[in-house]
Amino acid sequence: MQETIPLSLCNVSKSFGPVRALNNVSLSVRTHEVLGLIGENGAGKSSLLKVLSGIYQPDSGDILVYGQKRTFSNPAAAASAGVGVVHQEQSLVVNLSVAENILMSTRATKSGNKDCKVRFGIYNWRKINEEAAEILKRIGSNINPKSKVEDLSFADRQMVEIAKALQISRQPGVQPIIVLDEPTSVLEDNDIQQLEQEVRRLKEIGSVIFVSHRLDEVMKFCDRICVMRNSEVVGERLTSKVNADELFRLMTGRQAATTSRERNKSLRDSAVVLNLEGLGAKGKFSDISLKVRSGEIHALVGTNRSGREEVCRAVFGAEEFDSGTVRYNGKVVSRPNLRESVYGGVAYLPSERKLESMVAGMSVAENLQLTHRGERASSIFVNPAARRDKAKEWISKLDIRPPIPDADIASLSGGNQQKVVLAKWLEDCQLSLLILDHPTRGIDPGAREDVSTQIFAACEEGAAVLLIADTLEEAISLADTITVMRDGEITATFDLNSGAIPTHAELVAKMI
Predict the structure, then answer these.
(1) In a domain? residue 316
(2) 219 lies in which domain range?
(3) Could you write out the DSSP letters of every residue in 368-424?
(4) Maximum alpha-carbon separation in the chain
(5) Within-domain flag for 438
(6) CA angle at 88 for the pair 247 and 178, rounded to the nearest 5°
(7) Around 370, how many Cα atoms within 13 Å sit in the side-chain half-sphere?
(8) Choosing a second label site near 170 at 20 to 30 A (CA), which of 38, 103, 345, 377?
(9) Tens digits of per-residue pLDDT, 459-488?
């Protein structure tokens, strides 16, 4: 007996003017399966997810639900087919309860029904909390439905997102298909283990589409992997019969290169660019002392609440500190501020690029000139031609897609946005200190190589780098020095140039 496929796309295409976002894409999601979806930034994954969720409608091709043609004219139509999406950028309302977030998108049961949640405009909170608890139980979560979302950890918020998607897609007689878009991008190792358990539970009650740039996680979580490149599906592999190198080649069209760097033992004789002495901020971190030298990559590792992000922000002037000393190129900076940092050769790439690193509605070229105008300006005026030429140069260096200087940065994929906001800092000819908070978060392996190459180039030019890596493996691979933080304090420092390379387990032991 032939298997009935819950959801299939057949020769789906989608264009935006001259840009072909999807080109004859065909794929299927099978019962009780985790399907991995991978590809470079700009490969078409985001457009495909928007078609699946009813945000975009295809120009041609068919969507089949159990073999029958369906039109996903809006997200509600996709949900009626069982499709629920957990987006990369969390969409929860943090000042509402867990139950309110899970059930806010569902229709209230008609008054008079024994399961009625709204009667005469009055909410039945007991019913609402009970239903939310039941949904959470289905994915193995014991989060209190009455808890405020703002009080939850990132990992627990992710569980609420999954429960919300499951509730929206829950239809009588329909198998839920949950789309997880970069679900591990803001999670720590322990949280990722918890997510793995949730994915297994979702697989038992339906199917999962798992979108990620981390090839090791895709191979660990998924049964089958679909690879996209240049808006097309270029390969499909069973996880049991493929390795990371082959997946990288399918994604990028080239062989993987190493992102490790030759460590330089002479760095200990280089000039100290940043020197922190007993730095503290009440309730955030205390007694932070470290040095970052010219040409050095110094990584801070720790959990989400370790204080590492706050230290970086204090050095740049985005947050205040109340004790200790910051010395920059030998000079005491009593109270760093943003303007002085920018014009003094300090760059800061925050983890929240959409909120703090870019201006949606402005072009790629305009975003690139937000911090340093250089030869693109004469007095108070900007030279559009020079700005566009400089943008083309960085578009080529970092393979930013689409390669259009006048494109709205909001129309780019997350990874290509990340390249733009990094280039905004790298082009500063006076760059002395580069502070990077998760610079490779949400970007594909090929783009990660491009970004790493540019970071190495900055070091070769003498810049010091203070890095919060995306993973411990990345920190070990890139850094000359690793400082471990826990509960706002330094618990260990490793000099990798001395040959004492810490293991993953050694770092974790100092973090928790």
Answers:
(1) no
(2) 7-96+170-252
(3) HTSS--GGGEETTEE-HHHHHHHHHHHHHHHT-SS--TTSBGGGS-HHHHHHHHHHH
(4) 79
(5) no
(6) 80
(7) 19
(8) 38
(9) 999 999 999 998 888 999 999 999 999 999
